[in-house]
Write a structure and sequence with these properties.
mainly alpha
C-alpha cells in the first residue's frame, strides 16, 4: 500500500473512531440507554419486593391489633406529608405527572422533577405509606425513579437530556413494575404523548425490552394476577362490555374529577388544605384508617381481594366504593404513592358489582370487563388498560371485549372529567418547577 493510501486509511479510521468510538456521543448515548435500562429493571424488581413486604407487614399488624391503625395511619400520613414537603417537594403523588411535566422542558426543569435523590426519597416514602396502610401502589413511583435513573446515567456520561430519555425511562418503569413490556410501550404512546416524537420510537422500545428482559430473567415469566381463562359468548360480551364501559367510565371519571378538583380548584376547602397540609394529610389518614378497620380489605394495593375476585372468588359488594374512597383520600393527601394498582383493585370490585347484575355470565370475565372500564375511566388510556389487564391475567384471547369496554369507558369518562388526570396534575408540578428554576 502506498504512503498516500495508508494516510487515507488512518484518517478514515480516526474519523470513524471520533464518530462512533468509546468517547463519541453516539457510543455514550447507546451505553447510557442500555446500562440505564438494566439499572431500571433491577431497581423496579427491588422496589417491588420491598413494597410487597411492607404491605404484608402492615396487614399482619392490622390483623393482630385491629384498632392500632386508627393511631398509626393518621400519624404516618402526617409524618410522610411533613417529610415530603420539607425534603422532597416534587416527590408527592404518583410520579407520572412529574415525568409528564419534565418532558415539556427537559433541560430547564427536567433535572429537578426527575432528580435521583428526590426519586429515591419518593420510593422510601411510598414504602412508608404502605407500612402505615395507605392505599397506594408502586407503579407511579417506579415511573419517576426509572426516569431519574436514566437521566442520571445520561448526565454521568455527559449525554444531553432529552424528553425522549424521560419518556423511555417512564415506559420502562411500567414494563418492569408489572412485567408487561407491551404495556410499557402503549403507556409511552398514550400517557406521555405530549412529548412523543417519531424518532424516539426505537429508543422507547429498546429501553422497555431491555428492562423487561432483566425483570423476566430474574423474576421469571410470572403473571401479576395469575392466569385467567375468561370467555363470554358474543351477545353476552357486547352487553356486559357496553354496560361496564358506561358505568366504569363514569365512576373512573368521577375519581379523576374529584382528584383534580382537590389539586387545582380554588375554594375555601382547598385553600384550607393548602394552608394546613399536615393536618389535612392526617385527616385523610383518619378516613383511610376508619375504612380499613371497618372492612379489612382496603389497605395498600388490595392485591389479595382483587386477585380473589379475578379468579372467580367472592368479596362483599361494598368493596368497590370502600376502595374508591380509600384511594381517593390517599391520593389527595399529598403523600407519595401511585394509583395504578389501587385503581385496578377498585376496578375488580366494580366488576364484582357487575357480576351481581349479570349473575349467569362467567364471573372472571365480568370482573375483567369492569376492571378495564374503571381503570380506563381513571387514567384515560384505553390501550394501556387493555394491555395491562390482558398481560397481568394471561387473558390475551379476551382482548376484543376488553377493548370494547375500554373505548366505551373512555368516552363516558370524558362526560364527567374532560381533562386527563395525569396531565391535569402535571401542570402544578410544571409551574412549581419552572418557578424554582433548574438545579
Amino acid at each position: 500500500m502506498s504512503g498516500r493510501g495508508r494516510r487515507w486509511t488512518t484518517r478514515r479510521f480516526r474519523a470513524l473512531l471520533r464518530h462512533s468510538g468509546p468517547t463519541s456521543l453516539i457510543f455514550r448515548r447507546r451505553l447510557a440507554l442500555m446500562g440505564g435500562a438494566i439499572l431500571v429493571g433491577l431497581a423496579a424488581l427491588a422496589f417491588a419486593w420491598v413494597a410487597d413486604e411492607a404491605s404484608e407487614g402492615f396487614e399482619r399488624i392490622a390483623t393482630r391489633h385491629r384498632w392500632l391503625p386508627l393511631l398509626i395511619t393518621p400519624l404516618g400520613f402526617a409524618g410522610i406529608a411533613w417529610i415530603t414537603r420539607r425534603f422532597a417537594p416534587f416527590a408527592g403523588g404518583s410520579g407520572i405527572p412529574q415525568v409528564i411535566a419534565a418532558t415539556r422542558l427537559p433541560e430547564q426543569i427536567g433535572a429537578r422533577l426527575v432528580d435521583l435523590r428526590t426519586a429515591m426519597l419518593k420510593v422510601l416514602l411510598t414504602i412508608a405509606g404502605l407500612l402505615v396502610g395507605a392505599s397506594v401502589g408502586r407503579e407511579g413511583p417506579t415511573v419517576q425513579i426509572s426516569a431519574a435513573i436514566l437521566a442520571r446515567v445520561h448526565a454521568l456520561l455527559q449525554v444531553p437530556l432529552r424528553a425522549s430519555v424521560m419518556v423511555a425511562g417512564g415506559a420502562a418503569g411500567v414494563a418492569a413494575a408489572f412485567n408487561t413490556p407491551l404495556a410499557g410501550i402503549s403507556f409511552a404512546i398514550e400517557e406521555l404523548a405530549a412529548a412523543y416524537e417519531q424518532r424516539m420510537t426505537l429508543l422507547v422500545i429498546t429501553t422497555v425490552i431491555i428492562s423487561g428482559m432483566v425483570s423476566l430473567g430474574l423474576a421469571g415469566d410470572y403473571v401479576y394476577f395469575g392466569a385467567v381463562a375468561a370467555r363470554l359468548s358474543l351477545p353476552s360480551a357486547m352487553a356486559v362490555a357496553l354496560f361496564a364501559g358506561v358505568l366504569g367510565g363514569l365512576s373512573g371519571g368521577l375519581f379523576s374529577r374529584l382528584a383534580l378538583a382537590a389539586a387545582t380548584s380554588r375554594n375555601r376547602f382547598t385553600d384550607w388544605t393548602r394552608a394546613n397540609p399536615i393536618r389535612f394529610a392526617a385527616a385523610c389518614g383518619v378516613i383511610v384508617a376508619l375504612i380499613g378497620v371497618a372492612t379489612g380489605l382496603t389497605w395498600g394495593t388490595s392485591y389479595a381481594p382483587a386477585r380473589h375476585l379475578i379468579t372467580g372468588g367472592q368479596e362483599p359488594l361494598w368493596f368497590a366504593p370502600a376502595k374508591f374512597a380509600s384511594t381517593l383520600a390517599t391520593s389527595i393527601s399529598g403523600i407519595p404513592g401511585g394509583i395504578f394498582a389501587p385503581s385496578l383493585a377498585t376496578g375488580a370490585g366494580f366488576g364484582n358489582l357487575l357480576r351481581w347484575i349479570f349473575p349467569n355470565e362467567q364471573g372472571s370475565a365480568v370482573v375483567l370487563l369492569g376492571m378495564v372500564a374503571y381503570f380506563t375511566g381513571v387514567v384515560r388510556a384505553p390501550l394501556t388498560a387493555v394491555i395491562i389487564i390482558s398481560e397481568t391475567t394471561g387473558s390475551r384471547g379476551f382482548m376484543l371485549p376488553l377493548l370494547g369496554a375500554a373505548l366505551v369507558a373512555d368516552g363516558a369518562a370524558q362526560r364527567i372529567c374532560k381533562e386527563r388526570l395525569y396531565h391535569g396534575l402535571s401542570r402544578a408540578f410544571h409551574d412549581r418547577a419552572k418557578a424554582a428554576g433548574p438545579l
